[in-house]
User: Which sequence fits this backbone?
């Protein structure tokens, strides 16, 4: 099928719009001059300066710690919640439960942040890494349970029942049958929660203490004063990490899909 | 027993860290600001009892929100900015989604990944990238001056125009993906049938393609509109003094004025405004899910 000129133009302009700002950012991160908008020759000195800047390194470390803990917790809780919603049947307060799980998806971050901060102050919990982890877990478990439950809905329940009929305990059935099948969704849920946590400025600003500045908070306070070459360099590093991560993940999932197709074909032949 | 644990753990977590915090916000929105720690009154104490505590709560802050024009202007201008930005995103997103759905099949996964990739990149950085482009001596002004379209640099950064650009840019993937998935599922022979029956290309587009992608359009619009309404980062980095958005007002009320009761009241009202589009969005999603069955 040939594409019309209209479609080619809209795709070209669309993707140029999506990518040009980031490409410019990356190019100018190698600019010699401190005046960010004036090109003065190639240099990697801002990367060197960035690595010397202790406050950025500290913030990066806090961010990674928070992201690892909160995304892991969110994946466990979100998978449990998805399993309860899809397979749990009826129980008291089910409507409230599903409402509470999905509400953070549409909740403005300023409200989530404010309400959690008021809770932490109310119970006298000092703000720090722990409070950010609790906050991030709460809002990202919603995203995990959406991803996991969409996988749970589509997969054949009789596989689980077969395992139970053959004498597996419910836990074994989950561990040996359900979990391997939903594993790709659980992993992408974890990645999503991890990225959301790395990225979050607003909720972290409300729930962080003075000694637990995260990278977005640090970037935001620098960027408020205007464009700076160090931030350009930092942005370039972050863009590079994400690009490599997404491409690797998509290659892995593509291979998994090919393998699954092959297995299904083999199974179809066997019957 | 195991089932009970499975239900109770996430349930209790959400009760403690989602529902209880909202109850606290609501309670504080009924309190008065005070020079105390934490900076509001009354605090509950067992000695004076619950009735004394309740009798000190009132709707004063909500009355204040209606009398001070700053707040209702901020709500109105947030709504106006969110509606306009959603419409602009649709205008730009639809042709891209359409082009993707009409692209050769082996390109589509790559195009899809190219739309999703920016979504994984830091939101803050994507907003920041426009500061260098739109500023007085920024790349856009340099380009326009060099071509000779303008003689004096345009002021775009710190205006509402910059806010619109920022919103369209960051939320574009949310618009493209649902529309693309609706268009991708569409049966191409319907267009051929319409054209065989005498429709022009444009007529076929408006009479067949657009109605069939309606659910995608509705989903995309809500996915842009809902988060935009409470947006904070974009107005505070790209907007100027003229940009009134409620997310920013709430932030300033809390961090700069330290008026927690008013900040809480602002949050409660914002939530009430959001209930309508959220319920409509849920209905649309349910209808779509049922149609697919």
Assistant:
């Amino acid at each position: 099928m040939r594409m019309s000129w209209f479609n080619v133009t809209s795709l070209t302009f669309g993707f140029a719009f999506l990518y040009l700002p980031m490409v410019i950012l990356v190019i100018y991160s190698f600019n010699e001059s401190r005046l960010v908008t004036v090109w003065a020759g190639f240099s990697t000195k801002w990367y060197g300066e960035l690595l010397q800047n202790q406050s950025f390194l500290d913030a990066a470390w806090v961010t990674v710690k928070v992201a690892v803990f909160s995304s892991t917790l969110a994946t466990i809780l979100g998978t449990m919640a998805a399993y309860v919603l899809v397979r749990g049947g009826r129980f008291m307060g089910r409507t409230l439960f599903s409402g509470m799980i999905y509400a953070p998806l549409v909740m403005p971050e300023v409200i989530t942040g404010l309400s959690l901060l008021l809770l932490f102050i109310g119970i006298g919990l000092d703000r720090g890494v722990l409070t950010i982890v609790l906050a991030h877990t709460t809002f990202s478990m919603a995203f995990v349970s959406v991803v996991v439950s969409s996988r749970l809905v589509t997969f054949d329940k009789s596989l689980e029942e077969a395992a139970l009929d053959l004498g597996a305990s419910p836990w074994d059935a989950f561990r040996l049958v359900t979990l391997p099948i939903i594993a790709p969704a659980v992993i992408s849920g974890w990645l999503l929660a991890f990225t959301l946590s790395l990225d979050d400025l607003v909720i972290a600003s409300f729930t962080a203490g003075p000694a637990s500045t995260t990278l977005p908070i640090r970037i935001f306070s620098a960027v408020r004063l205007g464009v700076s070459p160090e931030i350009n360099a930092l942005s370039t590093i972050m863009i590079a990490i994400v690009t490599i991560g997404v491409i690797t993940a998509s290659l892995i999932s593509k291979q998994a899909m090919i393998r699954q197709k092959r297995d299904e074909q083999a199974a179809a032949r066997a019957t | 027993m195991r089932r009970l644990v499975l239900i109770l753990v996430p349930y209790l977590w959400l009760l403690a860290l989602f529902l209880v915090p909202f109850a606290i916000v609501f309670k504080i929105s009924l309190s008065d600001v005070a020079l105390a720690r934490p900076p509001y009154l009354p605090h509950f104490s067992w000695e004076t009892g619950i009735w004394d505590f309740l009798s000190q709560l009132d709707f004063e802050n909500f009355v204040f929100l209606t009398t001070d024009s700053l707040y209702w202007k901020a709500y109105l201008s947030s709504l106006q900015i969110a509606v306009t930005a959603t419409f602009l995103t649709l205008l730009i997103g639809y042709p891209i989604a359409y082009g993707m759905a009409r692209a050769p099949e082996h390109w589509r996964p790559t195009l899809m990944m190219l739309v999703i990739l920016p979504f994984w990149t830091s939101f803050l950085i994507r907003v920041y990238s426009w500061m260098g482009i739109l500023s007085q001596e920024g790349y856009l002004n340099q380009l326009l001056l060099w071509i000779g379209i303008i003689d004096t640099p345009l002021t775009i950064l710190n205006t509402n125009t910059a806010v619109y650009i920022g919103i369209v840019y960051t939320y574009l993937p949310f618009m493209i993906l649902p529309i693309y998935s609706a268009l991708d599922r569409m049966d191409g022979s319907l267009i051929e049938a319409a054209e065989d029956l005498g429709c022009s290309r444009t007529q076929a587009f408006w009479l067949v393609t657009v109605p069939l992608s309606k659910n995608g359009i509705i989903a995309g619009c809500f996915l842009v509109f809902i988060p935009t309404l409470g947006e904070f980062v974009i107005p505070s980095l790209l907007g100027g003094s003229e940009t009134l958005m409620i997310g920013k007002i709430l932030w300033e009320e809390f961090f700069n004025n330290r008026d927690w009761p008013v900040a809480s009241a602002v949050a409660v009202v914002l939530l009430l405004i959001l209930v309508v589009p959220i319920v409509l969005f849920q209905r649309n999603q349910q209808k779509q899910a049922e149609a697919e069955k």
